[in-house]
Every structure is written in C-alpha cells, then in structure tokens.
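for the writeup, i need someone to sanity check this before i put it in the appendix. the sequnce is what the collaborator sent (i think, or maybe the updated version? ugh). structure was predicted straight from it, no edits. if anything looks off just tell me and ill rerun, i have time this weekend
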Amino acid sequence: MRKSESLSRYLFGKILFYSLLLSLLSSLVNGWISYQDSIQRSQEQVESVLSAYRATLSKSIWEVDYEAAKSHLRGLDHFPAVLSARVTSAGPLIEYTKHDADLQQKSPVLTYPLLSQDGQRDLGRLEIRLDQHALNFAVWRDTLRFTLIVAFELFLLAVLIFFLFRRHVSSPIQALSEHVQSMSEARLSEPAPMPTQHMRNELHQLAEGFTRLQSDLLAQFSARDASAKELEAHRDQLNQLLQQQEHQLDMVLHHMADGGAVLDGKGQIQFANPAWARMMNRQNPQNLIGSWPTQWLNSPRWSELIAQLSELDTLTGESILLNRIEAAPVPVEASISVLERDTQGAVQRVQIMVRDLTSRIESERVLIEAKESALQASLAKSAFLANMSHEIRTPLNAVLGFATLLADTSLDELQGQYIQSIRTSGTALLMLLNDLLDFSKIEAGQLQLEQIDYDLRRLLEDTQDIVCAQAQDKGLDLVCLVDASVPLNLVGDPSRLRQVLINLLNNALKFTPQGEIVTRARLVANDGQKIRIRVEVQDNGIGISAEAQRALFQPFHQADASTTRRFGGTGLGLSICRRLVEAMNGQIGVESELGHGATFWFEIEQTLGEQKTPVAAHAELAGKLVFVLSPSASNRQKLAEDLRLMKCEARCVASETELIDLLAAEQTAADLVMVDLPVAVEINLRLPATLHATPRYETTPLILAVTQGALGQGALAEQAGYAAYLSKPIHFDDLQKCLVQLLDQSKPAEQKTLLTRHRIAEIDAQSRHAVLLVEDNLMNQKVAALLLEKLGVRVDVANNGVEAVTAVQNHSYDLILMDCQMPVLDGYGATRQIRALPEQQGGMPIVALTANAFAEDKEQCFDAGMNDYMTKPIQIDTLKAMLAKWLPVMA
C-alpha cells in the first residue's frame, strides 16, 4: 500500500496547496472589494451625518449660540469614521477631536459651507477629517474573516476529495498494479481484480481489458506451443527430405555425363564429380581436390575467367581446354556461376559445369565438309545454269534483233504473221531465260542490291508503260494509285523493284481477260530514316484457290498445273519475287478467291532520300475547279487524288448525264473538264459541242484520255473540240504539264494546238535550259549527260573544240561545259574562238572541265576567257552548285 498511500498523499498535498492559494487569492480580491465598499459606506455615512449636522450648526451659528454648536460637534463621537471637525465663522473657532485619535495620519479633509436659513448668506465652513486607520482596520478584519472561512471550507473539501480518490481510484489502480507485477504465464488464467463500486466506470473497463489481454496472451502462448510442436515435426520431415535430396543430388552428380566441380576464388578444386574425374583421366574424384588451375586448366587462364566473373554472375557457352593426365587436352563447353562473394564483391566460390565437345566437333567437321561439298555442287550447277543462260541469250538477241529488222521490210501478210510469231516466241523465251538467270544468281548467292536514289511514283508509272502495250492488246485498263502520305524520293534498287512489279503485272495481264488492273502504294511505317511501303497489284482475273496459295511462291510451282500449257511460264517468277522482296527486308503475299480475281502484295523497307516537294509548284493550278467524267471508279479515284496533289478541286461523275447535271447545278464554273474514255468505246464527238453550248462553258478546255489509241483518233478529237488527247496510263507529271498549258491565258486561242504527250514533251524541252557539253571521251560524255539530264537541263554534245564552235554558231546555249584536253582543237583554243564571235554568241558563260587542279591551270583557263573552273571526276553536288551559279533560275 506504500505506493498507493504515497500517490494519495501527493494528490492530497497538491489539492491542499492549491486550495490555500485559491483562498488567499479570493481573500485578496474580496478585501479589495470590501475596502472599496467600506470607503463608500463611510463616505455615504458622513454625508448623511453632515446633511443632518449642517442644518443644526447653521441654525446655531445664525442664532449666535456657540455652545449649542459645540454640543452638536461632540455628538460626532458616535461616528468612529470621523477623526476631527472644525467650524469657522464670524464667532469663535469651534473644534472637535476624536478621543485617542492619531492626528498625524494622512486623511482626507471634507469641507462644507454653512448657509443661513434663507440660503442667501454664508455663515462659515465645516471641515471634517475622516479616520483612515479605522476604516482600514475594519476592512482588514472583514477580509481576514472571509479568508479563514474560505480556507477552512477548501481544507474540508480537499480532505473529502482525498478520501474519495483513495477509495475509488487509487486503491483499484494499486490492486491492478500488484496484479500485473505478480503476473506470470502460470497465472494468466486469473482475472484482474475488479473495483468495489457497483456502478461501471473506466476502472471496470481497464480491469476487463487486462483480463482480455491475459486471455489473448494465453491463447497466443497456446498457439505458440502448438506451432513449436508442428515446426519440430516439420523440421524432422525437412531433415529427412534434405537427406533424400542430398542423396539424390549425390546420385545425379555421380551418374551425370557432364563434369561438375566447385572451386574457390583462386581456382583450386574443392569438389569434383566422377564425370569430371573421367575427363581428367582419373578414377577417383577425391584425387583432384586441391588441384590448382595450372594443373587442370589448359586455356584460357584462370585470371581471365575471374576477370569476366567480376562483372557477371554467370558465364555460359565458354570454350575451354582441360588438362588430362598423360593425355591430350580435351575441349569442353563450360558454364560457370558465382556461388559466393565477399563484402567487397570478390569471388569466393565458383561452380563450373563442363561438357565434352570432342564428338560434337567431329560431327560438325563432317557436316561442314558435307555442306561445302553440297555448296560447291550447287554453285557449280548455278554457275552452269548462268553460263548456259548467257550463252543462249546471245544468239536469241540476234534472232529477235533481225526479226525486228525484217518486220520493217516489205513482206506479204503471211510472212508478216510468221515474223510476228518468231518475235512473240522469242520474247517469251527471253523472259524464261531471264527468270532462270535470276534464279541461278540467287541460288549462287550472287544477288546484290544497288542503293541509288529513285522516284517511287515515276518508277510505278514507267513500269506500267512497259506492259501497257500488252494491256491495250487485251483491252485492259492500267491504274496507278499512290497515297499522298508516301515519300516519293527513296534510296534502294529501283531495277529490282521494277522487276518484281513487272512480274506481278505480267501475271495479272496473263490471267485477266477483261476489266482493269490497279496498282496501289501506301505507307506502312516511317521512323524518320527508313520507311516501309506496301504495294498491291489487284486484278479481276480467274483467282487462286486457298490450297494453291500456300505453295505459290515456291520454285517451279504454279497455281494450276494446267495453266502451264494454257498460259506458259516456268513457275520461277513468284519465287524470284519472294527472294528479291526478302532481300529488301520485306515480305510478299496474295489474297484471292477462285473466280474473284487476286491481289498480290508486298512490303519492302527503303531508306528515305533527299525529300523534295512532291508536286512541282504551279501557282496557276491552285484552286482551279476540274470536272472528271470516268465510268471507272479506280480511274476516278486516281484522277481525283492527282488533282488534289496539284492543289486543284475535283468533281467526279460516272456518266455524261451526271456531267450535264453537274454543269447546271454547280454555282462555280469549271476551269477544265476531263473525259476518261473506257476500253473499246468510241469517242463522244458531240460532248465538246454540248459543253461549249452551255452558258459559262463556251471556252472551257476538254481533255480526252483514251486507253487504246487508234490511227487518226487524235485528229478526230481535235476536230470535235477537245483541247488535249492523252493516252493512258497517264503520268502525273504529264497531266500536270497538260493542265498548265491548257490554263495558260497568255497564248491566243488561235495559236493553241491539240496537246498530246509528244507535244507536252516538246514544250517541256523548250522550257529547259540548254547546255553544250564539249567532251571527247565517250564514257565521260555519257556520265556527264546523264547527270545533267537528271538535274533538269537539255544537253547537246560536241566531241572536240571545232564541233563546239560550230554548235555555238548554229544554236543558242545558256552554258558551255568545256573540256580542256581534246584532239583537233582543245578547250583553250575553242574558248578563244567562241569569245571572238559576236556578243550574242560569244558572251555565254563557259566553265572549264579538266583533271588538272593546280593554280597555274586555273590561270590558264581564265586567260583563255573561261568564266569558271571544275575538276574531274564530276560530282553531282558540284555540278548542281555550278548550274545554280551560272543558271540563276535553277538556284
């Protein structure tokens, strides 16, 4: 009970101290208030006394009865608050002093006037001093009495609180404390002591909480004991399982074919299995324990392996040589794993597993020899096939050449048929030989792809031009659709891409009896450097069954064996296409159903070239409205997309009736009308007159596009009122140039003639810069001429200085590229003669072409009258910069 009594006494002392402090503060406050109240009461008492005495004194002074006045003053003895009083008047001074009064104290003096009964006359003054000590004593007496009463009351309250707290709080807590201190695992079942009060409170909840806590602890201890027993049982089972696994591991290590060992960080063997011992030419693995790397490792050195393991935890597929006792080293494939590292990361233990490679190396050697033998046989076969293809092509080219020449001579109808049969059969044979040659190159591994710049749209259009004659003979339309998102300037092998396209187009032409063949190109992916494009060739021919599609791209396979006799072919074309597409990091496939045509597609990866504006800038075409009449949905789509790329607005209709309705309904008059003529349909000679008779369309030009032109058809079109006559497939550039010429308002109407492909080419050539190339070497002529044509200029070639002077006298040129070293007349002499000509001919710029690059050579060129200097070999960038310098329009 000592701790409980100490707590009670502590709380009792605290309550008593704060009770006394509170009573003192209350007494001070009460004293101050009582003091103020006493002063107020004294003043009020004096005021009431004076109000009674002043009238009496005033009457006594008025009647000159001074004795009565003194008698009245002595009556102030009944008022202890009055210390002294004095009356001053015309008569004697009348004073009063309290008995035993302390006249030295400081006290307030109250002065009151004495007036006559009528209040008109001042008789004197009454001065009264109050006894301050008496007032203070009364106040302190009352304050002390109040303080003692309050302190006694608080003391009694503290004692009562002490006994209540001790009985109802301290004692129950002490009992709980002693219960907790004596608690042990054996006494957890004893409940905590409950307080004696019948009414439930927090102490009851605390005791119940201790009891629940004991119950929970008892349950946990019981669960712990049960878990311990279970863990002990599991431990026995795990020990048994571990022993079994150790036994199994020992069995595996003992019987495994691969060698296994455990090494320390220095490479010393700590454990080895029997297979390792057998590889080392030992019977007992224990004899190898403690061996150093110099004893068991031939190559590489152990330090090299440890250096690799310092950065990696595992090395796999390492080829090493193991030393064998009294035998040659054995090659093995090793897998090395780090088992343990120290705190600094250094290797402490290593596990190594090795497999003998002797039999594998021998097998690989045999396979390599067999492969080389087969490869040599295949190469010999391919080389023979390639040589035979070349040998056959040489006389076949002569046969075709002479057949062509013979066809231009005077022959009767039967002879013409014979010659045509020879040419057709020879061409088919040449195509077969080309397929065989390409296949032999691919099989021999001699296929190489070029990486040159090319224009994708132009390649697709040019490829259609190659097969357009066959298409026209069968009455088929060729349509080329290039999506606007496809970059046109690419780097790759255009000749091989053209070969794939020609093969697919030829197949489509072969198996399509009527209708159209559509070539589409769209963008699949673009990462900024490489793009993936998809090209599709769609026909409406006989179609291909699902079974045939699975083997369609294999060598010597065709969709239907019967087609070999009906359509011809080796069955190599699609196989070659697959190899070429795969060489371009692509894939090829087909989508088809029997009787519903086929769509052959391929995707290839190409590098982006120098990107230029996809459409030449022709401001006069921007916003022009063009009406397109075409029964073919594919042609309408192609023409609409091409016109949109030219910044034109297109309105497409499918029939003449729809066109007439459109002319009437459209609020804005069309600037141009284009008519696409279907296969085997006569020209509508009435349409131009109908159009020009419509208001607002009196002078609107019409373009006629035909699939298969006939002799005299252009003249009929011009007489009917068509402004242009174009044969399909129409190239994008040709259509654009045609529109520019037709919409050129600067030419008088009477000077405008029917525009055809040939007429557009002539106009285009006239608009280009003319450059005279003076060069005596034939190969240099070809290279320079091709580069100049690629840069968009018109080129004339002179073989020496004399021809150059003659050409300048007869033609007008914008620039002369002059070789310096030439026979007959060199470049210096030719330049001097040209400068001697009249100003209009002799003033044109001349740029020297020479292989000499010394300063004196430049001076010699300038002294001869040349304007600039360019060294050989000619590079296209240098040539482009030179043309931009001297032909300002090209800059």
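The first helix runs from residue 2 to 62. The mean pLDDT is 79.
thx in advance!!
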